[in-house]
Amino acid sequence: MTQFTSTSTQANDKANSKSKFMEIENLFKSYKNGDGSEFSVLDNINLSIGENEFISVIGHSGCGKSTLLKIVAGLEQQSKGIVTLEGKEIRKPGADRMMVFQHYGLLPWLTVRENIRLAVDEVLQNLNRAEKISLVNEHLAMVNLTAAADKYPDQISGGMKQRVGIARALALRPKMLLMDEPFGALDALTRGKLQKQVLDIWEKHRQAVMMITHDVDEAIYMSDRIVLMTNGPAATIGEILAVPFAHPRDRQELRESQEYYELRNYALNFLDRYFTQDE
Question: For position 15, what pLDDT does the model report?
């Protein structure tokens, strides 16, 4: 069988070659219980992500993967440790890191175009009106939403809403895209189409991506590396798998590959082990 798993040091080699674009070092996260005791969520997380790298984080519910993403986004603070982007410590949200949420986060009283424009107005204040209009139109076209630009969120499908969220995030020109189960609320057909569309966009822009998912097939199709989390409490990184397929990827070709099934089974066996331990 092909060897997919790496030690922590080896797993960081790819990121190290790109100057450790984003780095998580010795990160711990805990919350205070009502009785004053501490509940540990994340325990000694260490991970480096390269400048153009697509990373997926997988684990069972309650393992703290969304908490980890929020810490990278600056929406939550770690208890110990440090997170840096291009050598600068992350302490709060910033336009260099944009989130795409599972449940869209669109303002229902604004049109598709206005939802994107509002974010552009807030973050890219140095642009003039014509530049902002051009930027919004460019990103509407990028996600095939030009025809729906003047519709309201309740007039479009779930897949289209998620495309608005992705266009809004990308329009702000972030250095890193953070996605929290972005396809989790979609039906299988829509999910597959949107996965491909996101990959096509990523191929053109190639910024760093950190995606939370429950779906092993999705992680293999989209990612350069897959971070497997142990169960909580006190979850940590159990293994990091290198995905051996070059981009761009063809889903059908992947599924005809023996390596694909070996990697898929390896990841599922890891998750099954922890599911059994948790029972």
Answer: 46
